[in-house]
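Re: the request from the purification team.
They wanted to know what the chain is likely to look like in 3D before they choose a buffer screen. I agreed to run a prediction and write the result into the notebook, where they can find it.
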Amino acid sequence: MSQKFRFAIIDDDRLNGIHIAKVLEKQDHVVTLYQESPAALQAILESPPDAVITDIMMPDLDGLELTQRLRAQPDLRDMKIFVCSGKAFDYDRRTALEMGADAYIQKPVKGPALLEIIDRIMEDKVRVKFWGVRGTLPRPGPDTLKYGGNTSCVTMDFPKGQTFIFDAGSGIKAVGDKIMTSGQKRSEGKIFISHPHWDHINALPFFTPLYIPGNDYEIIGPAHGSRTIERLVSDQMDGAYFPITVREFGARISYRDLREGRHEINGIQVDAMLLSHPGQCLGYRVTYKERSICYITDNEMFDPYSDYRSENYASRLADFIRGTDVLITDTTYTDEEYASKIGWGHSSVSQVVDLAIQGEVKNLYLFHHDPDQNDDAIAAKYETARAMLDERAFGVACHLPPEGTELAI
C-alpha cells in the first residue's frame, strides 16, 4: 500500500512492540510505541492516530477494555483497531471483534502476514473474485481457455476477514484448494446457494475445507417446499449419487433457509429476492459501507412483447439492483439463441442491457455463459452488449470477466 499511516502500538512486552514497530517503519509508516495502556489511551484521545495495535493481556487496562473505550468515542469511529495476542482461543478472537476490533492478529507476529492484514483493513475494500463463469455444465477444452470452463462460483472477501462464497459450481474446488494451501490454521465462511440446480451445488462435495475439523461453514439458500437447504445438500450426497455422505464432513457445518428480505449475515447486510427461474432461486445484494454488489443468476426477464413478461417483476428487480456498484448477472444467450430457449430460465443480451439501464447500475458483469458458446462466441456477445449500451449512451460500464478476475470494490 502506497499510503502512509500513523500507528499507535500498545504492548507491555517491549520486544514484541519493537518488532511490530520495525515492520511498519520499513514501510515508512509513523509509529508511536507505548508499554502502559492507560497512558496510551490518554495520548490517543488527545491526538488520534490512523490505527491502533494493542495486546490483550496488559495490567491496569487490558486490550479488550481499551478497544471498547476507544469504540465508545464517536470521533474515533474511522480509526482502525488491531488486537494482537498470543491467545489462540476462538472465544478471544470473537470477543475482540465484538468489542469493535477490525482484526485479530495471532502472536508470534510474522512481518508479511501482519502487513497483509494491515493493508487489507486500511484499504477497506471488498475483494471479489470469479472462480467460474459458465452455466449448466463445465466446458473444458482449447476453445474455452480465455474465459475458463468452470461453472458458477464467485467469492467476496471483506476487510475484517469474512468470506462469502456464492454458489458451488465447479469453480468452488479451486476456492477450497487455495484455502488449503494458504497456511491458515482454520477457515470459516458463508456459502450462499442461489438455487439447488446441479451446476450450482454439485461441486460442494469437492470443497475440501468442509472435511477439516476446526473449520466452520454455514450453507445458506432457499428451501424448496418441505425440502430444506440442508436436505437439498445431503440428498445429492446420499451414497447413490456420490460415494461420500455429509456425515464425513469434519468441519462444523450449519444450514440456514433464507427467504426474501433483508438479513444481517456475519455483520454484513444481505438482501435477497426471488428470481424468475424454475423452482426457488434467490438473487443477492450485498452492501458494505455504502457499496453494493449484486449476484443475480439464474434469471429470465422475457422480452417486452412476450406474454410471459411481468412488468411488476421487472420493476421490482430493477429497484432491487438500483444504483449498485457491481451487477453480476445471468447473460446466457444471444438474442438469436434465446428465441428457441424461451422458458428455460435464463436471459439474453438485450434483456440484461435493459435491466442494467433500468436499474442505473454502475458496472455490468456478464456471467453464466451457455456451454455451447466458445471464447469467440462469448466475446461477440460482450461486444453486442457494449454496443447496445454505447448506443443508448447511458454510462453503464460493461465487463466480461474471465475466470480468475479479481475486483476491489
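For the purification team: The first helix runs from residue 14 to 25.
Please add any questions underneath this entry.
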